[in-house]
Amino acid sequence: MRYLVQDGDRTVISCEVGPEHLQGHGIVHGGVYCALVETAASIGASLWWGDRGRVVGTANQTDFLRPVGSGRLTATAVPVHRGRSQQLWSVEVVDDDGRLTARGQVRLANLTVPAPGR
């Protein structure tokens, strides 16, 4: 994965599709989309949460919309909700032609760092 934009308000990552990303029918395996979706959302959520602690994914729901067998996939994540205890991020994955190939959302828990001495 290449990290193109890393920000607490928007994250963009890309992946060049190779044979190792394909399932038996010659199209990108769904797990590749899930990994792109969760990675993009987790980076943005972590950067927004910052030094307050860490974030961990609690749910990843990804829909596969268009088959891809080669080229580059680009995932863009933006926040839907950012609260004290959790965040929800929406992610769109497009192909080289800008066509939507997958869409997902990731819910993340915000974990605080205990104060020193606790």
Automatic annotation (TrEMBL):
A Gene Ontology cellular component where this protein is annotated is: cytosol
Q: Which domain of life is it from?
A: Bacteria
Record keywords: Hydrolase
Q: Which CDD domains match?
A: PaaI_thioesterase
Supply the InterPro entries for this chain.
Answer: HotDog_dom_sf, PAAI_dom, Thioestr_dom
Q: Does the keyword Hydrolase apply?
A: yes
**KW Hydrolase (keyword) present:** yes
Tell me which residues make up the Thioesterase domain.
25-101
Q: Name one GO molecular function term.
A: 1,4-dihydroxy-2-naphthoyl-CoA thioesterase activity
Family the entry assigns: Belongs to the thioesterase PaaI family.
Designated name of the protein = PaaI family thioesterase
